[in-house]
Amino acid sequence: MKTTLTLLVVSAWIATPELAAGNWPHWRGDSGNGVSLNATPPTEWSESKNVKWKVPVPGRGSGSPIIWDDRVYVVTAVTIREDVGAAAQPATQGVFAQQQQRRRRGRPGRGAERLTAQQFKLLCFDRGTGELLWERTAVEATPHQGTHATNGFASASPCTDGKHVYAHFGSRGLYCYTMDGQLKWKRDDLGKMETRNSFGEGSSPTLVDDRIIVPWDHEGQSFLFALDKQSGETVWRTERDEPSCWATPLVVEHDGRKQVIMNGQNYARAYDLESGKELWRCAGQTERPVASPVAANGLVYIGSGFRGAFLGAFQLDGQGDIRDTDHVVWTITRDTPDIGSFLLSGDRIYFHKGKSGILSCVSASTGKPYFAASRIAGLGNIYASPIAAGGHVYLTDRSGTTVVIRDAEQLEVVATNSVGETVDATPAPVDDELFIRGEKHLFCIAN
Known about the structure:
Layout: E1 51-56, E2 66-68, E3 71-82, H1 95-105, E4 116-126, E5 132-141, E6 159-160, E7 164-168, E8 174-178, E9 183-187, E10 206-208, E11 211-216, E12 222-228, E13 234-240, E14 250-254, E15 257-262, E16 268-272, E17 278-282, E18 294-296, E19 299-304, E20 310-315, E21 320-321, E22 328-332, E23 343-345, E24 348-352, E25 358-363, E26 369-375, E27 387-389, E28 392-396, E29 401-406, E30 413-418, E31 428-430, E32 433-437, E33 441-446
Parallel strand pairs: 17-21
Antiparallel strand pairs: 1-33, 2-3, 3-4, 4-5, 6-7, 7-8, 8-9, 10-11, 11-12, 12-13, 14-15, 15-16, 16-17, 18-19, 19-20, 20-22, 23-24, 24-25, 25-26, 27-28, 28-29, 29-30, 31-32, 32-33
């Protein structure tokens, strides 16, 4: 929801030594900042122009595609039947979902729909042709709680280190497969989340060294887990006094120590990667944060934008509560993003206002705007996070429209494109291609 800078004292989302050019192993790229250092994908396409291939994806999901070598991996949840046992316990839905139902029906809604059994799947496609190479059903299950009308049950993005691929389905479990689809281990015992207003789940895990970091913020007891990536065994589990949060952890390094940075409604926090001990915290976030942190040059940037606005630049050498100290370098209290995460490219941080097509770009060093709250024609409701590649920034809205702008201090629109269907997932740039996961299809965009 993660740079073109040479990382001096910080390495964001620490990459494994095996990481090579031509891969996109995590929903925010190999740095976690949303930037590809070497990709040069097209800036123009349509439903027919510059579409190398387009293949159907069964079911529903907004987890972003990841790419390693010649393969593309995607998660999805496929409805298989209506579960009779769930009829007596209908899904609790959020206010927005109920309102959407009433609008569709044109009369007062019942307020809840039956839960249905799902097949939670990991799909592997050939990068060159789009051919489905294999699919694995991790589990068949009926979700214990409903989800937002715009959210499915497979919203977390997978991740890989080139040896294994990890598919995270939240309360349905975390599954580790070989690159050829052999199940190595699973963890389906972490619990059941009860998210705010039954908005559903969606935080993605983060791989670093020999560990996979799994966020678990909800309306019950929240945790941050570190699991052994080879076995799935718990290395540490830290309690968090946080309600529902949909952000993904970011791992940075400072003074020889790796920190796990995590957003939160009560506090932005850092934890020691080795022990799970909290290192520092800072209040100021808004309700139910979704945006994930980014980092470079000794600073980490954390923010949110629902029922308020906040973005802060934090030094990494603080201890305890750092609010109102010199460890908070600068803050912004307007026009920050709700669903989409920040993009950090060079000294530029890009972000949407709420879920809108209004875009700002500020200096990562000072927080001063290069351009602020600029409405981008063609963009409406935003769920996907911006990405940067080849000197351009790609901004995608829910209608399937992607506006391409220059990756620069001045706003310059280069092209406006569409794949013709809903897009909630963040696109993935690799080499001269762009992979877009739509509501019904997976697209490979190439000249």
